[in-house]
Amino acid sequence: MKLAEIYQCFCEPTRLRILHLLTQSPLCVCHFQDALREPQVKISKHLAYLRSRRLVRTKRSGNWIIYSLPSKPSAELEMNLKCLQDCAQSDPIFGKDLKRLARLRSNCCEPAEVFAK
Amino acid sequence: MKLAEIYQCFCEPTRLRILHLLTQSPLCVCHFQDALREPQVKISKHLAYLRSRRLVRTKRSGNWIIYSLPSKPSAELEMNLKCLQDCAQSDPIFGKDLKRLARLRSNCCEPAEVFAK
DNA sequence: TGTCTACATTCCTTTATGGGAATATAGGTA
DNA sequence: TACCTATATTCCCATAAAGGAATGTAGACA
């Protein structure tokens, strides 16, 4: 069942935080590492998990791999991402991630297209 | 993270079908068995899973155990159940479950309060 | 060509999950 | 009390998931 697969992707805290950040803008791996303060291997594996289920797409830009949500998400995914954004209000961890991400915008080595929705 | 726990409950097809039926009305175990056409042990275990995470509540009525959604669900759960109802439109399996359930209403041994929202 | 950077993958271990067969249990009824 | 019905639990097995340490790799650049 396709819907259950979406929820499988949503059911792990780190993945949930990753997806939440991606609803804001495309990002490269180092941004996730810095915003979530989690080790590289952990981030990388969860991104691979999401990639294998087609919940995120990648594009290379020089040395960086930029992750983004699919350009044409299914209706189910779109609804659930919207719901996630609403639910994220109720757990401060999501807000903290956003704050750290915002701080990164000023001093990090990002390629131009990251942060450019 | 509380939100991730909700998605853990949502991430298995049988549980998703159970929760979907429960958004319609409280039900007893035999209704799930008949509507989902799944073995008793499977239904019972998934119900136990949901119960242990407080996504469903139980009440005994004679020989039957009636399962229902919590009377005061958290905002997150409520939003996600609403989202599930919308998403369920896109997979025919949910519709079939509802149809089988509707057929049961007429010829099954239900206590009065089941089906009475 | 060699090196560096950003990221991915492999290997290993632990824990969780899911399913079925068999068995247990609680309440109702004869 | 004995039995029946509805449901729960236990035991066993197979598979998936998650995390860390170590290692591999592709592209940029000197």
Would you write up a description of this structure?
2 copies of one chain form a homodimer. In chain A, helix 3 (29-36) packs across helix 6. Helix content of chain A is 59%, strand content 10%. In chain A, 32% of the residues are buried. In chain A, strands 1-3-2 form a 3-stranded antiparallel β-sheet. The radius of gyration of chain A is 13 Å and the shape is globular. With 117 residues, the first copy, chain A, is mainly α. The first copy, chain A, has helices at 2-10, 13-22, 29-36, 40-52, 75-87, 92-107, and strands at residues 27-28, 57-61, 64-68. The A-B interface holds A 1-4, 7-8, 10-13, 16, 75-76, 79-80, 83-84, 86-88, 90-91, 93 and B 1-4, 7-8, 10-13, 16, 75-76, 79-80, 83-84, 86-88, 90-91, 93. Chain A binds a DNA duplex (30 and 30 nucleotides) through helix 4.
Structural features:
homodimer, 3 strands, 117 residues, DNA-binding, mainly alpha
Topology of helices and strands:
The structure is a homodimer.
Chain A: H1 2-10, H2 13-22, E1 27-28, H3 29-36, H4 40-52, E2 57-61, E3 64-68, H5 75-87, H6 92-107
Antiparallel strand pairs in A: 1-3, 2-3
Chain A binds a DNA duplex (30 and 30 nucleotides) through α4.
Strand content of chain A: 5-15%
The poorly predicted ranges of chain A are none
Order of adjacent strands in the largest pleated sheet of chain A: 1-3-2
Span of the ends, CA to CA of chain A = 31 Å
Tell me about the biggest sheet of chain A? Answer: 3 strands, antiparallel
* Mean pLDDT across residues of chain A: 92
Going by helix content, strand content and strand pairing, the class of chain A is mainly alpha
Number of helices of chain A: 6
**Share of helix among residues of chain A?**
55-70%
Shape category of chain A:
globular
Q: Biggest interface pair, residues each?
A: A-B, 23 and 23 residues
Question: Which oligomeric state applies?
Answer: homodimer
Order of helices and strands of chain A: HHEHHEEHH
Count of distinct strands of chain A: 3
Radius of gyration of chain A: 13 Å
